[in-house]
């Protein structure tokens, strides 16, 4: 197994131990003891978003190994965080098309946020504005609940609170949606905004997000 990592956040992702453990598991899971006549495996890439805590990488790699994936490389972007303050991790592995779908389903079942899986998923972008008491209504919760909608991922957030965090503020969100699912993603944002009494202006066009 090759490893494209160039460093790890302190006390966060122990990539070497995680990769070694999961690689051993993937070898066992991929053994042809079930007699399956499967298509030839090919290389797949998944991009994950992990909490910056010890053991999270290993927990994310287990569903890959347990479902027949042969780990090739792990790369996490040192010093880079997603809009929710989590760590983006890219994992390459070999698997048949059928097992690849099982692996993606297993990752999501374990609560791992899959931001991209192979050639899937987030093919459309939309930028919108949220206005209201974003801080008082817990902006982190708002972003997490948007992410929980499988149709979209929050690619970028820009918060403006010129009158202080206790007053009305605004946030520009750039969402990446699966092909054909932008409307579903926007509907989820509108529903959440109604619940939190926020105003949505969408979509923005002609804006560099």
From TrEMBL:
<feature type="domain" description="ACT">
    <location>
        <begin position="45"/>
        <end position="121"/>
    </location>
</feature>
<feature type="region of interest" description="Disordered">
    <location>
        <begin position="1"/>
        <end position="41"/>
    </location>
</feature>
<protein>
    <submittedName>
        <fullName>Amino acid-binding ACT domain protein</fullName>
    </submittedName>
</protein>
<dbReference type="InterPro" id="IPR044561">
    <property type="entry name" value="ACT_ThrD-II-like"/>
</dbReference>
<dbReference type="InterPro" id="IPR002912">
    <property type="entry name" value="ACT_dom"/>
</dbReference>
<feature type="compositionally biased region" description="Low complexity">
    <location>
        <begin position="20"/>
        <end position="41"/>
    </location>
</feature>
<dbReference type="InterPro" id="IPR045865">
    <property type="entry name" value="ACT-like_dom_sf"/>
</dbReference>
